[in-house]
Write a structure and sequence with these properties.
heterodimer; A: alpha/beta; about 70% helix; about 10% strand; B: alpha/beta; six-stranded mixed sheet; about 35% helix; about 30% strand; globular
């Protein structure tokens, strides 16, 4: 054990001291702060209201309704302009005004707009989705009211029909309504699957690089004369895993601090504190965090053992780029299933996937984050994970033991199997 | 300890995908010996050493180190091993590297650190201990490698081709260190194909060729057993050497002719005096004429010569 500890220590210290580690550990929190604060800032951004002209062919009531709706949104300052016909000359003049930056754009309501439902907006910036949707909504509402009025519908009824509809989605878990919005849950699941994918991949590849480095530096033989190959592999996996844990702990600490002091942070950027509260953030339960940690560790062990095999089977990083493809593919497919599962966490694919050791480390935490998972499924999944990890680490260690001493031609999959069987 | 052998190997064999690397090899290394494992390239020296160190397993046979068969890895704290493939973590700092190597052998950390500092100072690398290995010159890296091998004061040193690739200064450093450790009671096994070096520092030798033992024993016994009449001659220049060799060709069984120097094995029953008479008669000027014991080189050529022409094997594995 003392020997394994020496390897753990070396792997850990050598990696924690690298520039890469320091940079990514610092950049991570910057990213989290951004994620925590940016949405509030974006919402809070009042911005400059756009000056637009609503030009219409003698449909003053429609134009007025549009104007009222647009003004109410606070995004536009509207001037109405009535013309006899929407001639090229009229449009040219307005286009000139846009070019002179006199106005930001103009909305065209033709005589036929009410019947056809067609209108047009021309402006400098047509890529702001939220602005465009305000325009569209305003025009649609105004057109609908006009149509109803023409058919003689009682203005009172129209008024009533117009009153807003607001759909709020709340997630219900076993403990009742969580007060957590559907959107927040989605983002939690999405973020979780991405983070698990990235971290398992990044540290798995680190293990692989470490194995290749020992082969390339030709130090492996000295090591193997002192340590059993399994001790070396174990020490390496634990050491690199430790680096990952430290990094994630730093990130988590920053993450929590950001969430906790979000109001103040948003304030620092000069926005209103209420903006911070208006963005719903997902709640992270202790149970979810603990299970996620367990799945991360099991997944990391499984994939780092596979990556160690890749490292042992190749001579250099260039070869590794190719040889790691099969392992990467399994992870990528898992990520896709996880993202699909965000919409339907109880689908057959998601349930089966969360029982298979290769995909469970990402799928199960995602399912746990977005919906309830029956306890027996969690138990089954954990049992299959533990068994799978034990089996794969065992096979991997047997291939690794032979592979690390081999140089030259890259072994075929069949040869790898032969190594695993070799005594 | 019930016996006086640090290493006992009983008919070990190892084959790699159809190729026999070692066949039925047996040898015994007495405690305190400087033991030379000699043979041409591809003879099976490295494979034998690797089997002692548990890096590969023999297909058959038994290896006992320090009286048991637990293997080199089990005893790694008592063994210093210098593999044929030299290597260090390039990115690690020198002192930390040495401490890690010792810890991996089971030496306690503070103990390892103390000894590493001692050795680095002794080898003149004291100022470099906080530098990365890759910043060191090749010669300095070789020294770090020796220190890593000997730091934990092993009872047994196993060195695979220790002198190959060394600059003359480090060759001298290594030789002196080996002699010093051997005098202090350390058993040293080393493999080489350089007979001159082996002849100077070994007291026991084992010559292997094509995976099988050709001969072993104490160097003095080996020489005595080899028999024959051997003469060393040195000529004024290469031209007179050529004339001289021609003039005695009917008296000589074998000649290791190096131009101005030659080691001659005389035919049975030929008196060396006749050889000298011929040279004098032919007017050859000699710088040396000496009756000698056969050199290890001569013995090696006689015994392993035909075997040494073993077909070249393409190595795909590091076996």
């Amino acid at each position: 054990m003392h020997k394994v500890w020496a390897v753990v220590r070396r792997e850990f210290l050598e990696r924690v001291r690298t520039k890469w580690f320091i940079i990514s550990t610092i950049l991570g929190p910057v990213f989290f702060v951004g994620m925590g604060v940016l949405p509030s800032l974006l919402l809070a951004r009042k911005g400059r209201a756009s000056d637009i002209v609503v030009v219409h062919e003698h449909s003053p009531t429609l134009a007025e309704r549009v104007e009222v709706a647009l003004n109410r949104s606070g995004r536009f300052r509207v001037q109405r302009e009535s013309v006899a016909t929407l001639s090229e000359a009229v449009l040219d003049t307005l286009t000139q005004r846009v070019r002179r930056e006199d106005i930001d754009g103009f909305l065209i309501l033709s005589a036929a707009t009410i019947e056809s439902g067609r209108s047009e907006y021309r402006g400098r910036n047509v890529s702001s989705l939220s602005d465009i949707s305000v325009l569209e909504r305003s025009v649609r509402q105004a057109v609908i009211i006009e149509r109803l009025n023409r058919r003689g519908v009682d203005p009172g009824v129209v008024q009533e029909a117009q009153s807003g509809i607001d759909l709020t989605t709340l997630r219900i878990s076993r403990r009742g309504s969580t007060g957590e919005s559907g959107q927040a849950t989605f983002f939690l699941g999405y973020g979780l699957s991405l983070i698990l994918y990235i971290v398992i991949l990044a540290y798995g590849i680190t293990v692989m690089r470490s194995v290749i480095q020992e082969k390339q530096d030709r130090i492996i033989e000295i090591l193997i004369s002192s340590l059993k190959p399994f001790q070396l592999m174990l020490g390496k996996v634990i050491g690199v895993g430790g680096v990952g844990m430290v990094q994630m702990a730093v990130w988590a600490a920053f993450g929590f601090a950001t969430m906790k002091y979000r109001t103040q942070l948003v304030g620092l950027f000069g926005a209103d504190a209420s903006a911070a509260r208006s963005v719903q953030l997902p709640a992270l339960g202790a149970e979810l965090m603990l299970l996620t940690l367990v799945y991360f560790l099991l997944g990391y062990f499984l994939y780092s053992a596979l990556f160690a095999v890749v490292g042992a089977a190749v001579n250099n990083e260039t070869e590794a780029g190719q040889a790691q493809q099969p392992v990467m593919m399994v992870l990528i497919v898992t990520l896709f299933i996880a993202i699909a599962a965000l919409n339907d966490p109880a689908s057959e694919l998601a349930v089966i996937g969360s029982m298979i050791p290769f995909s469970a480390p990402i799928l199960m935490p995602v399912r746990l984050a977005i919906g309830d998972v029956p306890t027996q499924q969690i138990g089954l999944s954990l049992a299959s994970m533990v068994a799978g990890v034990a089996a794969i680490v065992w096979v991997a260690a047997r291939i690794y033991r032979i592979g690390i001493l081999m140089y030259g031609k890259r072994p075929s999959p069949r040869e790898l199997l032969r190594w695993a069987r070799q005594s | 300890m019930t016996n006086n052998f640090v290493v006992e190997i009983d008919s070990i064999s190892k084959r790699f995908s159809g190729h026999v690397a070692v066949a039925e090899l047996s040898l015994r290394v007495p405690r305190g010996a400087v033991y030379g494992l000699l043979g041409p390239n591809g003879a099976g020296k490295t494979t034998s050493i690797r089997m002692m160190m548990n890096i590969t397993q023999p297909d058959a046979g038994v290896i006992r180190l320090f009286g048991d068969d637990k293997g080199g890895r089990h005893h790694s704290a008592r063994i210093g091993y210098l593999p044929e493939e030299r290597g260090l973590y390039r990115k690690m700092k020198v002192l930390e590297h040495l401490v890690f190597l010792a810890e991996a052998k089971g030496v306690r950390r503070h103990e390892a650190e103390r000894k590493a500092n001692e050795w680095l100072d002794r080898m003149g690398l004291g100022d470099w201990k906080r530098r990365k290995v890759e910043e060191l010159s090749k010669g300095m890296q070789q020294k770090v490698q020796f220190i890593g091998t000997m730091l934990h004061e092993p009872e047994l040193l196993i060195l695979d081709e220790p002198f190959s690739g060394l600059d003359p200064i480090n060759q001298q450093v290594l030789k002196e260190t080996i002699v010093q450790l051997a005098r202090g009671g350390t058993t040293v096994i080393f493999s080489t194909h350089q007979m001159e070096v082996a002849e100077k520092i070994c007291d026991h030798v084992c010559i292997i060729a094509r995976g099988t033992k050709v001969l072993d024993g104490a160097l003095a016994d080996v020489k005595r057993r080899h028999g024959g009449t051997h003469v060393a001659v040195a000529f004024e220049d290469g031209a007179s050497g050529a004339t001289a060799m021609k003039s005695v060709s009917d008296l000589v069984a074998k000649a290791d002719d190096s131009g101005v120097f030659a080691e001659l094995t005389l035919l049975d029953g030929v008196d060396p005096q006749r050889l000298l008479d011929r040279f004098v008669g032919a007017g050859i000027r000699l710088r040396r004429f000496e009756r000698i014991e056969p050199s290890l080189h001569r013995i090696f050529l006689d015994l392993a010569g035909p075997e040494a022409a073993a077909p070249e094997r393409r190595e795909t594995s590091n076996a």
